Structure prediction request, 215 residues.
Amino acid sequence: MANARPIIAAIVLAAGSSQRMGVKNKLHLPVDGMPLLRRSLEILLASNIDEVVVVLGHDHESTRALVDDLPLQLVYNEAHSSGQMTSVHCGLASLENSYDGVMIALGDQPALSVADINYLIDAFHNRSSGEVVVPTFTGERGNPIIISENCRADILAGTRNLGCRKFIEKNPELVCRVEMPNPGVVIDLDTPQEYEDYCESQLSGDSSRMRLQVN
Prediction:
């Protein structure tokens, strides 16, 4: 069916050492009454994503215990200390099926909603050009992104490197920017102050003030 929605997998990067958060692993911190990583995964599982793969690394045993009852695939990146792109490769390589696109998601974005995820999937489906859909809010780049099956193959073959800081600037023909209706795509939690600000913003209902503090 020509208008059928695209088949999309999601790779969730959850292998980092969370050094900027200090002694606590940020993915274990409570958000909306559950660990941050679990909250992120439940949003994806409730969306139009067809398969979810979580890439673990640092602190993988205790992190696995937070989510191993969920209907998803957990993989371990032995090279996680060598950088985020190794987790991207690990996750992409673990997908056994072909997909129209693959969402590359972070585990520490507490303000994302099911509607945000589906909005991006629709944007990917309806794009007129580009191999990488990148969300923005008021012009600021965010996450998660969605890459095409062709781009996935290029990354695994080593001909594309999404980890390059200048990837978007150097490859504008590959990128389709999508302006989002809310700031969830540009909110993540890296430091104790950001986590505190986010929790306070939830209590006060002033998410716009929190975004300015986080970014």
